[in-house]
TrEMBL record:
Signal peptide: none
Keyword Disulfide bond among record annotations: yes
PANTHER family, sorted: DISULFIDE BOND FORMATION PROTEIN D, GLUTATHIONE S-TRANSFERASE KAPPA
Domain Thioredoxin-like fold residues, every copy: 79-240
Region Disordered: start-end pairs: 1-23, 246-269
Segments of skewed composition (Pro residues): 260-269
Keywords assigned: Disulfide bond, Oxidoreductase, Redox-active center, Signal
Keyword Signal: yes
Protein name (database record): Thioredoxin-like fold domain-containing protein
GO molecular function, one term: oxidoreductase activity
InterPro entries: Thioredoxin-like_fold, Thioredoxin-like_sf
Family named by the database record: Belongs to the thioredoxin family. DsbA subfamily.
Biased composition (Low complexity): 246-259
Length: 269
């Protein structure tokens, strides 16, 4: 009887030892599983960070209509939108903001003449959209402007946007503007995807390179056009002078009123 009890005790002891071994094995496996999970999580985070950094370093999407003509030698990805014949003898560089009230005044006073200069081949115009006045609202409009340029509707967009001057542009309202202006093609998806957001930021950087601190700012064949010449007569005279190879340092036409530029927030006078 005692031998059977001894055997039973031995079996129980062995079972307990086996149970303890299994428990230790489960604990090791749990610790190993946690370690593997942590390593996997760190790897996933590292891959995500690398991917995001890789995207930042990728090429900037630049509108096909970007160019410089005979105007300012803008290098890099921030060249403005060129409207007109690229080989026109005169280039008007126009730094503007779609929410700038003085830019709207400039457009109302001179838009018709500029359209005529462009259509006749006397000049082309390079639009450099900025965000001095409208911040994020202007930034959205600038992206949409580049999307419109892709559809050969840059001038139509400019006219429509300034006609709605003061609008705090949202993606939806810019899509609506495209529909009202009959801008087709990929315009809507381009606006929704912020395709040219990085290009718009690059254009902003170019303003600093050329010491543009207010909108509007106008150059004719690389020479700064004084605000006193921001009239149809003044711009036509500047274009004629530049086409003839002269300097645009001409006196202001008399009896006219010109808009005052809107300075960059924080810029010194």
């Amino acid at each position: 009887m005692s031998s059977k009890k001894a055997e039973a005790r031995e079996r129980i002891k062995a079972m307990r030892e086996e149970q303890a071994r299994q428990e230790r094995r489960r604990e090791r496996m749990m610790r190993y599983g946690v370690a593997v999970a942590i390593v996997a999580a760190v790897a996933i985070i590292a891959v995500a960070v690398a991917a995001s950094r890789g995207g930042d370093d990728g090429p900037v999407a630049v509108p096909a209509a970007s160019g410089t003509g005979n105007g300012l030698a803008v290098e890099g990805d921030g060249a403005g939108i060129l409207v007109g014949q690229p080989d026109a003898p005169v280039t008007i560089d126009y730094w503007m903001d779609f929410l700038c009230p003085h830019c709207a005044e400039f457009e109302a006073a001179n838009g018709t003449l500029i359209d005529e200069l462009v259509s006749s081949g006397q000049a082309n115009i390079v639009y450099h959209p900025l965000t001095f006045t409208g911040g994020v609202y202007s930034s959205r409009a600038n992206n949409a402007f580049a999307c419109a340029a892709d559809e050969d509707m840059a001038s139509e967009f400019v006219n429509a946007a300034f006609a709605s001057q003061g609008t705090q542009w949202s993606t939806g309202s810019l899509v609506d503007l495209g529909e009202q202006t009959s801008i087709g093609g990929d315009y809507e998806s381009c606006v929704n995807d912020d395709t040219y957001e990085d290009w718009a930021s690059a254009a902003e950087s170019e303003a600093r390179e050329f010491e543009v601190t207010a909108t509007p700012t106008v150059f004719v064949n690389g020479e700064l056009l004084d605000s006193t010449a921001w009239t149809p007569e003044g711009i036509q005279a500047a274009v004629d002078t530049a086409a003839a190879g002269g300097s645009i340092a001409t006196p202001a036409p008399t009896g006219t009123t010109t808009p005052t530029p809107t300075p960059t927030p924080g810029a010194t006078e």
